[in-house]
Design brief:
By secondary structure, the chain is mostly beta strands. The protein has one domain: OB fold (Dihydrolipoamide Acetyltransferase, E2P) (Beta Barrel), CATH 2.40.50. The chain has helices spanning about 5-10, 30-40, and strands at about 45-50, 55, 75-80, 80-90, 95-110, 115-120, 135-140, 150-155. It is globular, with a radius of gyration of 20 Å.
């Protein structure tokens, strides 16, 4: 089946058999690379600040979403924050029940205008989790960090 046939005949469900070869290179971008280098090398998070709009972006951005100013001043925002929102998963992708529920949360870092979506530490009783709960990032030991989101093990209660 040609791709034009697939596009033109939209009333009949169709499919491709086999594999679709995809080649790509994923990059963090300029701001993302600085962010993950700081996690890897210094054990901290970086943000960028737009003084005109009074916004601190975490993760950092290279331009302001509101005024489009270039943002090239990176600031250390630390690794503590609070739970902005969260969800609890009780089941695995296959529908089976998890042995321990997992909590995925949006963590607002300090008083910034952004944050990180990551897991809360399993030692936190999920019934005790609340919006506004203070948390701190748990990072892998420095020698094991590679400069990725996986360098953040999760967030623990403060």
């Amino acid at each position: 089946m040609a791709i034009t046939e697939k596009i033109n005949n939209t009333t009949v469900p169709t499919f491709w058999e086999g594999e679709i070869p995809v080649r790509y290179v994923y990059t963090y971008g300029l701001a993302g690379e600085k962010f993950f280098r700081a996690v890897k090398d210094k054990g901290t998070f970086l943000g960028t600040r737009c003084e005109d709009c009074d916004i601190t972006f975490v993760p950092p951005k290279i331009y302001c979403d509101r005024c489009f100013n270039k943002l090239d001043k990176y600031i250390d925002v630390g690794i503590t924050g609070y739970v902005e929102t969260f969800t609890i998963t009780f089941h695995n992708m296959d529908g089976s029940e998890k042995k321990v529920p997992r909590v995925l949360a949006m963590i607002r870092i300090g008083d910034t205008d952004g944050g990180i979506i990551h897991y809360l530490d399993e030692s936190i009783d999920y019934e005790q989790i609340a919006i506004g709960m203070p948390v701190k990032a748990v990072l892998k030991p420095k020698g094991q960090r590679k400069g990725s989101i996986e360098d953040i093990v999760g967030f623990k209660a403060v």
